Amino acid sequence: MIKLEPRVQRSPAWSYFSPVLAILLTLITGYVVFALLGHDPLNALYTLLIAPVADWYGVTELLVMTIPILLCAYGLALCYRASVWNIGAEGQLLIGGVCASAVAVNFVDSSSAFAMPLTLLAGIAGGMLWAGLAAFMKLRLNTNEILVTIMLNYIAVNVLLWAVHGPLKDPHGYNFPESALFGDSTLLPVLFDGTRLHLGLAFALLALCATWVFISKTFIGFQIQVLGLDASAAKMAGYKRALLITGVLVISGGLAGLAGAGEVAGPIGQLVPQISPGYGYAAIIVAFLGRLHPVGITFAGLLMGLIYMGGELAQINMGLPNAITGIFQGLMLFYLLSCDVLITYRLRFSLPFKQQKAQPIHIAQES
Amino acid sequence: MKKLITTLGVALSLCISASATAKDNVKVGFVYVSPIGEAGWTYTHDVSRQYLEDKFGDKIETTFVESVPEGADAERVITQLAKSRHDLIFTTSFGYMNPTLKVAKRFPNVKFEHATGYKRAKNVSTYFDRIYEGRYLTGVIAGHMSKTDSIGYIAAFPIPEVIRGINAFTLGLRSVKPNAKVKVVWVNSWFDPGKEREAADSLIDQGVDIITQHTDSPAPLQAAEAAGIYAIGYHSDMSGYGKKAHLTAAVHHWDEFYADRVQQVLDDKWQSQDIWKGIGSGMTRLAPLSKDIPSDVVSEVNAISEKIGKGEFHPFTGPIKNQQGELVIEAGKTIDDKTLLGMDFYVEGVEGQLK
Lengths: 367, 355
Hints:
Low-confidence stretches of chain A: none
Oligomer: heterodimer
CATH architecture of the largest domain in chain B: 3-Layer(aba) Sandwich
Order of helices and strands of chain B: HEHEHEHEEHEHEHEHEEHEEHEEHE
Number of helices of chain B: 11
Strand content of chain B: 15-25%
Number of domains of chain B: 2
Low-confidence stretches of chain B: 12-21
CATH topology of the largest domain in chain B: Rossmann fold
CATH superfamily of the largest domain in chain B: Response regulator
Number of helices of chain A: 14
Structural class of chain A: mainly alpha
Strand order of the largest sheet of chain A: 2-1-3
Strand content of chain A: under 5%
Largest interface: A-B, 38 and 36 residues
Shape of chain A: globular
Radius of gyration of chain A: 23 Å
Largest sheet of chain B: 7 strands, mixed
CATH class of the largest domain in chain B: Alpha Beta
Strand order of the largest sheet of chain B: 12-10-9-8-6-7-15
Largest sheet of chain A: 3 strands, antiparallel
Radius of gyration of chain B: 23 Å
Structural class of chain B: alpha/beta
Helix content of chain B: 40-55%
Distance between the termini of chain B: 78 Å
Helix content of chain A: 55-70%
């Protein structure tokens, strides 16, 4: 019989081993699943996990795809550390994209050096404003930020649709819902010729370092963590709760807004109704997979991007249906989350016929 | 050494024969915006992809990628198809227009066909069918089959293509019942069975007795079947989802067009073009008509269809008034393609606000 027993302390070793174990289990299960479905399992795993980054173009594409997810996730991690449950990165990203586009369409034929910075700043401001709304409602009206940020996502989608069907629509676009293509002065410069990897990478790296230092090395970062762990302790210590909550929400909104601006002024190059296939929601998963740590988040984001791209390649190279890739992606997330149980619990093996004496610690779960 | 030379020789001859017979086979890629499913827009393209496989046999290899979002991801998927030696790539959603053009610039030897767009290049063609002709015919059928003279129309996004369909349907409807009304509900999604069903149910509550749609899922049809009223499908024959309700559907039919384009690539005669063909070419059709439609209506519809096919009748023939009752097209005149492509007004008889 296998029993789960709570550990007295979190196991530091397992916090590193659990993702490794999860990936191993995913590979084994994936191998079996693909073999049962009649596909060459090694080829399938190679196509899903290695082929997407087997060449330089693939590597840059993986980065292009992960930049917006990471920007959102770094910000979300700050919020979650403070126990502020911001589910609204998607909406903040969309509003960022809309605000950035509202500026960018004024520079279509201009070569002004201000075009790109203003576009990005507008995006950041838009995201901050959208998250700021949630902060205001939480602090002044005592609303639940989970509900408010989710609802604001839906409002943001409709603001985007309104903008792209209305004021920002390309006047020469046959009434199709798209803005004009942005001018070259607005577009984020591409870092390497022949790829789509753009300046957004620098912003993501900057955000990685900044959030890391901020959360682990500054006093405000410390205050945020205390607030998240024990709100009354933070109050006793005299930390300014309202300021901290507003701070994390606005920073997180600004980063998501930057992600949105980076998409419209980067790989897309115009405002379209589908700026984001759900980056803001993916970022929530990525933030937790990465244990709310900027470095962990970076790995988690790259992994998510990788299996997504692998899914496309599996369709192109092997004719695997999208649904099978979905199963594989689900398996990986399932194992990653479920292996984390080993950090706080220990497995006990015991023989079923041997009666055990009552134990001082109650067994939490049986499996 | 001798062995090496022979090997090199064989390799070289292989290379030469490969380049000389490159036109012996063709690799064709498809990019789909939604899952293939069993009905709807993407389904019609996949039916034709399978037709290509059957028709060309050994000469063709086809690939498809489904559920590709129209944002930044599209360009990567199209690039991956171009990189993996596809000769001809069909990108089947409007949102792929600019990504297709960007990739086409980098891969001048790959041919691209973009559905529903308006931007072309030397190696990028556009194609679509005049589905509004089919819409007009379904409007005529609805005019004969409706008792309340009130029709529900579930629509995705207020873009010209959709508005054109609503207007063509309304003109067909009012050619039979001059006072009939079309109630439009926007669901802001191409595929959202939940929302489509809700929209259909609320339209049924408002007293419509026929439901039609410009969305992908069979949910509106199923709602009509449950309520015991008629429905008209779209994109593909949806009769399997509501045998009693399904009157017909305005459907796309790409088989011959796709086969022509593949043949042209094989013959090295492919050229960029702008295709917008309708009933005359067989690209637009009606799904088999329900047995509930009286035979005189069937023959009337067939007669109009024939006239449209021969170019003797245009569904958008004046006098056409807009919602405000102003004359937009004078009697006897027809609307030009440019106005059709950018259509942004409702004709008289449509209820609801466009903006």
